[in-house]
Amino acid sequence: MITRRALIIRGGAAGTGALFLWTTPAEAAAGPVLSKTRSIPVGGGKILKGKYVVTQPSKGTFRAFSAICTHQGCTVAGVSGGTINCPCHGSKFSISTGAVVRGPAKRPLTRKKIKVSKGVISLA
C-alpha cells in the first residue's frame, strides 16, 4: 500500500521532471527577459519595470543598470543626451558605464549582468 506521503513525493518528482523537459536549455540558463533589442534606441535607453535601465550606447552594445539612484533612492525617470537622469535632485549617469556624470550622487548606478541572444535582452 502506498502512503499518502509517498504519493505526494512521487507526484512532485514527476511534475518537476515534466517541467524540466518542457523548458529548453537556453530558457533554463537565461534569467528574466528585460526587453527586445529593437526596443532600445542607439545612444539612448529605456527604464523597465521601474527596476532596470537598459541602454545601447553604440549600435549592438547593450548595458543594464539598477534604476535606483544612488543619491537618495529615487527611481530614475529618463534616458536622454547620453545620460540616465534622476528627477529628484538632478543626478545624471553615463549610459555606457553608469558612472556619475553630474551629482549630487557620488556613486555609479549598479550594473546588472545581462545576456543578449536572438534579439532578446535578459538578466544573466
Automatic annotation (TrEMBL):
Residues 1-28 form the signal peptide. Residues 32-123 form the Rieske domain. Its cofactor is [2Fe-2S] cluster. It holds the Pfam family Rieske. Keywords: 2Fe-2S, Disulfide bond, Iron, Iron-sulfur, Metal-binding, Signal. Iron-sulfur subunit of the cytochrome bc1 complex, an essential component of the respiratory electron transport chain required for ATP synthesis. The bc1 complex catalyzes the oxidation of menaquinol and the reduction of cytochrome c in the respiratory chain. The bc1 complex operates through a Q-cycle mechanism that couples electron transfer to generation of the proton gradient that drives ATP synthesis. This is Cytochrome bc1 complex Rieske iron-sulfur subunit. The lineage of its organism: Bacteria, Bacillati, Actinomycetota, Actinomycetes, Streptosporangiales.
